[in-house]
Fold each of these.
Amino acid sequence: MQMNFTFLAPRKYVQGRNVLREAGTHISKVGKRPLVLWGPRVQALLGERVLSSLKAAALETVDVEFRGDSTKAEAARVATIAKNHGADMIVGLGGGKVLDTAKAAAAGGAGAAAAGALAKLGFTKWLVPFASFFSFLFFLPMVLVSWLFARMELKNFRDQTGFRARLFRAAINRAVFIVAVMILVVAVVIPLLRSWLSNLPASTFSGLGSHPFFLFLAAFSFALLPHLMRQFTINRSPYFIVQVCGSLATGIVCLLVGLSLVPVSMVTILLVAQSLLMLPFFGQRPMRWDYNLFLRATEGLVRNVEAEPAGAQRLAQHGKRELLAFARFLGARWLVNNHRWVEGGLRLRLPSTGGSPWWDWTDLAFNWSWKKRSQIQLAWDGTVRAQLGETDQKVLARFHDNPTVSKTDLERQVAAAVAAAWLSHDRPDRATAELALGQQAEMEVFVIPPAKGGLAKVRSLMAILLVLVLLLFAGLRLPGVRGRLDGLNPVSISEAQVRTFLNDTTPNPDLKKFKANSLALALFECLVLPPTNLFSPEGLRAMRDEVAENRRFDSIKDQRGQAQWVFIAPLARRAVADGWISWSDLGIQPADSAAFLRTNRFGMYSPDKWDCFLTRCEAWSWVKSERFNVMRIRSDGLAQLRLLRAVNCLDLIDRERLIQQIASVQVLSGRPPSKPPIHDWRDVRGLFFTPCWPVLQDTYFSLAALEILGGLDRIDRETCIRGILRRHRGKGYFTSPDSGGYNEYHIDGSARDTIAAFESLRILGALDRVKDLDKWQFRVASNRSSHSAANGLRTPTWDEVEAWVCQRRLETILRQKKEKPQIPIGSLLQPGG
């Protein structure tokens, strides 16, 4: 049987020495605007050669950094960037993940176009808003539990066909309808609103984030307070006191969150604390559904009441104290919900006829008028006048098909009942007063009193759960706890393990990957390098050969190109700047490199190339939901500045423009000039933040560069110090602001965040404001830590080595400071810092 084989391959394959320097020539035959996709390591190794080749071929390059995983989302992201920038081809540089993503992104262009065309069709466009409906399905269990609780409370009424059960059943149906309408509104209106808002300019809401929402909640809570306080004057029941305190606390906490004085997580703590405080009084909430006196009158509860019982002796005149005392008697039983002093005495407003006091809260907030509302008036002479409101009259007419009494009769009957209750209250005889008002005992209304019903056990269980939640939140605030939950642990390796790791010169078993102790990895990723005295002679030789890009380090000296090699090779720049390789190791002096730079043979540094120290990358603005091209100072640019300072050649660059660019990244408003709008900018106020990039590390790179350039006076130093300290949770652990549950600012609390914060505060001269510096620890994430192999041996990682070095150096720095208090606190980068 004959078998067919199919082989697919690129139309052109080029291989050879220094072929990357010809990349522009080959790529220009395919397109004119390439998108280059690569990781930071490849960019550091090959970036200069590739970009200069593309520039020489007059190609407009779009530079995009690969995010580490080849996924559909990453391919879609790259395809979107290519479309937005008009790229006509995608160039992938790196390993298999990068190339797979580049190919998928290039193929995804057609798919994106098809999806865009499909979205323009009428029926699909109509269905899009309902896509968010499913995001609300998680509310259904909560709604179901609430409905089950309501059914349990309904069955607790002794008379299942009575007016109370009927009103409660109607309220359940009304609540179900309102929830259904709210879900529909959220599922349809909000997506349409978001679509409309997305068309507005980014500056419309830039920098606001979620703060306006909490400020609105604070304003709403404070607006309710005057009305609640009016009811509080006549209702001192424990349950209502808790409600008033909760509203006040809500307003204060939301105001503090809105002003960025406390994190958003405080709202959760507030809600849990409110619920826990309310549980003991939950059984005292108004559940009888008979709090309107006119409703009681129509049900015959206050039918046969004498206005003046035999032997009554009424006071000739009442004062405010007597009127207010009786009003509080009524308010404690939820029979009145507002009051007003008038010329004739005290006017009290009654709850609505067809609902519970819960439904009167919205009326209390938004209905400023007493018109059409039922009320009673307590006169100074002890008489009572009742008025049936138009709204309650209509509700009673619908509730009773044939009202048995007229409005006048009802008003007379209620007035007589209140007058009789007032007289009994003054004696004092509260039992008779309650009887006059139709107040029945709980056993007459409920099968089991609400405070002792089946829900009591549920409340006890909820109380236990809420206490556990509070303890959990409190525990998360303790120093060190949050870090351990995040998988961070203080470094715990020995010097012997570090030396073994650094001096392992065995060949790399997998040439497709970096070796675990590859020195290139440390030069790319680490902020602090281990000192050379930890290397053996063989390890030191292997390190220098790797810096020389797998050539013999001695051959560089033999070729007499050391002076330019220091500045041209990215690995060499970092190794020399941070002290792994000294000028004497190279056999030259700093003046030799200075002479090379000043000849300007290659034009490496000049005033018109002031931005060569900055990395071009992309940033995502949550405000506009759009990507921006930005420039940031990173480790390679900082290494170049350190070298220029070492050879006394900083005058070759336009320092003023570079200082302006770096200083402009400091967050001092929500609308930084020529920068992406920032979401919740107050959370990182004073720091150097570019959306999507690690804020503490960017702050350190910026401050270190400005220190070298002499530009620290161009920034707000105090605001920067406060911004760093605001993120400190104790013992050197730093966390991201809580801006909605995502780590937008890329602070993970690891050793590099601690290093960046320490060095930033040192540069700003503010380490003395850290009270627990002697307790600082350098932590390593569990996924970046070493694990024991099958043979029981444990090989450290560069993250652990870096943290170990910093922990040792911090101990030395603090010991020296203790011995000589007058000296400034040293740098963790020593030597070479």
Note: The longest strand covers residues 614-621.
Amino acid sequence: MTSVAVRAAPQSIASRSVPSKLHSAAGSGTVPVNLTLFSTVADLAPGSHTAAEGPGEGAALLEATRGMVRRFVLLSDAQLTVIAAWIVHTHALLAAETTPYLAITSAEKQSGKTRLLEMLEILVHKPWLTGRATPAVLVRKIDAHKPTLLLDESDAAFNGEQEYAETLRGVLNTGHRRGGRASLCIGQGANISFKDFETFCPKAIAGIGQLPDTVADRSIPIRLKRKAPSETVERFRRRDVSDQANDIRQRISAWASGRVKSLSVARPELPDTLSDRQQDSIEPLLAIADEAGGDWSHRLRGAIVEILGGEASEDQSIRVRLLADNFLWGSRQSRMREMISKSARLRAIVSLPPNVFAHTSIRSAILVLQKEAAGKTYMASSKSVADLRAIAEDYAAWRRGQRFSLGFEVDLGSSRWDVSYHEPVDFGLGGVTFPYKVVPLGEVAQIDAGKRSDAARIAINRTGSKVIWLEDAPDDPIVKNNIFVAPQGNVNPLYVHFYLSSSLGKRALAKRITGATIPHISPKDLAGLPVVVPELRQQGKIVEQALKIRQITATLEALAFEGQQSLSDRFFNLEAVSDKFLKFSENTEKAFYQRLPFPIAVVYRKIANAANNTQRYSLLIELFEVVIRFIVLVNLADYLNSRKAAETLVQQVPDIRKLSAPSLGHWVVWFRSLSHIKTAAQSQPFLREIKEFKLHDYQRMLDEFVNIRNESLRGHGATLSEGEYELKFQEHSPKLNKLIGDLGFLANYRLVKTGSMDKDGDFYKISVQNLMGDNPHFESDHVVLRTPLETNKVLYLNAEAESLVLDPYIILEVCPECRRPEVLLFDKFSEQKITYLGYESGHKPSFPNVDRLPLVIREAAARRH
């Protein structure tokens, strides 16, 4: 590594060299900083290959296999070519000495990994699709049956139970070459012995992130990404494709079994740009391509070099630079940051401690850049140069998709790159996710001792034990006994007060108090006190929340005092005051709507946060609509599960044809009709309680709200005053609250979206996203059932573990407009698309129809005129 004299930090990304020896943070000696810790450079170049000639049955089979996979999974041409050859290889394993693994990975969920495994399951030889098996079963089944192992959720396996993870790692490390074995104990008691089990078989491993290095070294990487809204594939239904897949699989098996001898003696030309292990792994695939004929010999070699060479070129494209700290945040460098962001990805930014350059106080940072790549950025802050090796190892773990602890990851724009600005954890703040910076108090406020300026808003006594908001002080504090703080224009004064009054601020103050006999804090020490400063808008949010909590706390204290007085003075007349306390509790407990499905709960939250009565009244109508629509859609999903039920529904509810473009009036009509639809005696609706629901109590209210919505659409009432809207809200909200209260049975059901599913003995462990309450992050959970559930679907679960698939009427998808997951309710449909409504964002995204609705409903809608 090149060495240069370090007198000033480089200012440009085009630095020609980096310092090899940086001054230790401890101030003595020199510590070498090896920047290659953060990069891996490989020297691979593309090669040329000669295509075999002569198309035949093998080429046609490979083409058919490739086309089958392409219909249902979004893959590149190179990936499709390699996967097709690998599928044939599973049927010709007898001819191979080695087998390459398929490492199917992605950076995030819902990128098609499980779908690709499902496609492989219907095409490969002896498929074994699993997400989890005990170590004993894993080894014994491979030894006995020589299956094609299709392992899902490998990230969970390698980061989970240590015994299983190590057994799996051992199987994968030895199972790529014929003769590979794993040893296990057998027998019981005094008869314990050991046995070698063969581990050689084809394997495809899917998971988020990177595989362990020893496994990845034996694999062909198939990296997937979540498809964009403009990218489409066919919906996969096993029953619709099983016949065609069986035909292709049988033809492949017949073709491969007749060519075992020729494949076993084949010595295909190997790309000399690959490593020895890569050449050994891909040799059986190239033998199949050469045997197949046509242009497959050329195509497969090009695809392999593109994929495996791409892995090398990815590392080769990484560049590491050392830059001055002001490059990360300075306004003069903003155009340079923007230019780099457009052409490269910042894989990592690691800030270095001050005095890292000998005899200077220049701050600097390490940047790791990769050309033309997208994704998040790893950030870390080193306390000394000696930390860099540990941080580099932590960064490597992050790159492999494994657990990391010293840094954090962010979606980085071009505005600021300094680590302290984005760091989500500081002084023990574990849950902070918004960007902030840590600055001395003297940079954001004027500090005065012995005098009080007109701009002063906060006083801190000389002992540092009390923080006073001057406007709330009953008496003017004695000037000589206090230090006065006047926050400047770039911070919210109340935010500074609340920060200094918090346990975080008090701990920072305590560290600056000196004097054993008379503890005190000096203005200079106070000016250096670190302050966590978010953006000004975030400061305002924190202050608003703090003021609300303080107001509620004061109200609760007053109410508690009144309650104690009532218990003491009005013991025999408590009924007169009890309603007040019950009502207060009901109106303030957020749990009131956390038990409701997300689309309903989120509108409740919006009403609570509405800025004025006009918004509250408008949201009240929206709440009515979402409640009615949600009940109708659940019933529709229930009744439309079969064609016979759908035909009954069309006969008993003729207006169902309006589903193609319904109004609120139509939703209300369906709400009435579906509550009383006649079904067979043995047929119970999923929402059983809807049969006992006293709908006639709400006939007038339903009509009222439909009229209110129609008036609002026509613009009537647009000129009403705030007071008039408040009266309307007060008039109608109790009616709607009573309706929702009577629909409280919804709390007995759980709205979820299913994910992966593992078999565990007699039970299925199914990962789910919880879609209840108003939390838009949809926390992950799992359910354990005796029967499997459909995966990747929005379902309604009841207390008896019964489920109702709500797709396509209620879905959880990424909104194309706001680019975040949202629970969407069916709005209308056409032959080409279904339009949904998101009550959190108000957006109306559309997704391809692809015959997702029952035919009888589409036929009824076509006859609506």
Note: Confidence is low (pLDDT under 50) at residues 1-32, 40-55, 312-316.
Amino acid sequence: MKYILLFLISVFVSGSAFSQVTVVDTPHCLNHTLFAEVTGGIIPTASGITADDGWSGVIPIGFTYNFYGVPNTQCIIGSNGCLGFNLAYASAAQEWLISANLASTTYLDMRNVICGPWCDIYIPAGGTIDYSTQGVAPNRNFAVTFCGTAMYSCTTEWITTQIIIYESTGIAEVHIGHRTICLTGWNSQAAIVGVKNAAGTVSTVAPGRDYPTVWAATNEAWRFTPAGTTYTVSSIPYSPIPYAASAIYWYDSTTGAYLGTGPTVSVSPTVTTTYVACALGCNDTVKSYIHVTPSWLVVGGIGGLPYISGITSANPTVCGECNGSITIHGVRPFTQDSVIYSLNGVPQPVLLDSAGADSTITISGLCAGTLDYIFYKIMDCPSNQVGPVTLTTPPLSLAMNYSIKLGCNGDLVTFNDLSAPTGTDYITTWSFGDGTAASNAVNASHVFANPGYTGVYTDTLTYSTSFGCSIDTVFTVNVQHPISANYTSDAQSVCLNTPNKFYGSTINLNEPSYTWNFGDDRPVVNVPANGANNATDTVEYESPVAGFFTATLTVTDTIGCQAKFSDTFNVISIDINTSVHDTSVCLADSMTLRALPADPRKVVTPWYIPFSYSWSPTNNIGQTTTSTTNFMGLGTYVYTVTVTTTQPLVLNPFGCTASDTEEIISYPPVSLVNLTQGPVTIPFGGSVQLNVSGAVYYTWTPTNGTLDNPNINDPVATPTDPYTIYTVYGRNLYGCTDSANIPVYVDLNTKDLIPTAFTPNGDGLNDLFRITNLKYQKLVDFSVFNRWGILVFHTNNPEVGWDGTYQGVAQDMGVYNYQIITAHPDGTNQTYKGNVTLIR
């Protein structure tokens, strides 16, 4: 157990302090380890001041400090005990002569300063001036330390002081560790502690610390707190910030005995003793005290080391259950104890417990195994070690049997677990070896759903407890009673009316019988069981019809289980079809004739059956021994094709034949010539005469009224749509036809004509200004304006024009503007803007 006792430094740390000496006591069985450290201490930076009566260069504060309401991020340090914010005096001389109080002092460099205290210091005779910034925003501080600096004219006298300013609050503190009076009387023995603003109009001084009071001080401190436009001052406990690197010295506080130097010291008190840790700083010491009570007073009162007088154990009650226990005896009652033990060679987590009046501690929840050792501690003080102690588990006994009932859709097996002992903590698990889920029933029934073939199964019975203890046995269950069906035949393909033999076989041990079904609508063939296992059967069969058939053999055993085997066989009665059968054609080119062998059900015979072909007669055709030939001729022709199987393959019996006859009547074709060349373009409202020849009868489309006669070879077309395709169909006396197309475009954009001048002088020539050539267009708007934009004429009648007058008054000669809008047959409007000249 570790006790951490934190004591403030002996002179008390002020509420604004950032550092302290922390002492920690770590008690052991027979001694204590004390550890001390300085937290938040100064890491000094030299100010650079080595000459008498001078200000330092500009020094960064490290944060923003508000002094009399003015923010400052930089400062200067005066060699005569001051911190200033008037950067204009950086590296300049500092006034040393004190002849008036702070409020009346007129020195310009002694404004905007903190005096801590202001006195005549002679740094060349000894001492240091340094500064540092410490802490975390927004609670940082900046400290200036004058360490053992000699006084002018009396250099054996010295001063140690520290000025601290604080971020956010604007507080300033002065901590004077040592100041004595200069006995030579130099500088009136004066020293001032206070603050003064930049204008020199407002100042605050610590009571009794202003000119002309003569004073000395040891371990005193003052705090200056902002209050509006001024500061208040109060006395506070002396608590300068020590150096972070301060050495630690240890002493017995009662006897003053020196114990050692460094951050740690070991002590072995016999009674409660107070120790002090001293952090040596700048000519002073920061102290922290700690009271240490001997470990024995804490651990066990008056008596010897902890001791185990005996040990008892209890085994787990169920195999695998962790409910065993070990009890150690002779433990001191009512103390905090740490029990340490190892189980099966593995150290276990420390058990924190306290013995009662019976002086025992029990370790419960133990599994079976060996506890290698056990002891306990009071704090760091160990007891004697006992052990090993072994905890045992109750044994398991396994027994079982099973029975089998065969079936066709699965074999039922009943399993019985006869293991002992029994109870809610014991679990039976049957694994059946067929990929199905295990069962936890004590007596389980299971159906093996794949009988006959994979009928030997490796099963497992596992007898276990809910705590992981188990025993198992592996055994074989044989439910094998296979049944299968198979057959072969003399041929898979025969010609019609040819017998074929089928040979059936099976694997079965239960006197099988056979049933044959050949799939051709004839009755099934039954062969009863012949009393022999794994029996065979032979059947000769001749199909009365041709086609593809599926022969199925069904084997049935005495249990009623069945197996089936099916395969196809082909009974060929060759039929032949031709691609062109008894047809009339208009023959413009050679025609292909193709023979297509098929079975009587009109199913095309598979391509892999080889055939030979023969066409007759041979006139007007090409090849006569292939499945395909070409015909060319006019008139009536009759052809016969004969097909024969040629190779005795398994699927192709040799010599099956078939024939087909077809009649072809061919006529001369018709071909249209002298067709009007298109495309043809005509203006809107125009016409074109179409022409074609080469046929006897003609029909034109479309029949939408744009043709004057759709049944002649040269009709006149008058379309109005922008684009029309005229199609002509020609036919001869045999009904043979041909067709052709002529595209016709209609130009809907006839140009409008607008004159540029007119002469309304009544001579009958060019007396009106009007738009001409409006054949298919519509006049939407016709407006004329004079030079001042006045509308002098307007109409939408294409037959009306402007006669050069406005409201019955003849207009002057000159140029007039017009706007004309016309609508065209294609649905678009055309706008014309321009000018016309009126000439008289």
Note: The longest helix spans residues 295-299.
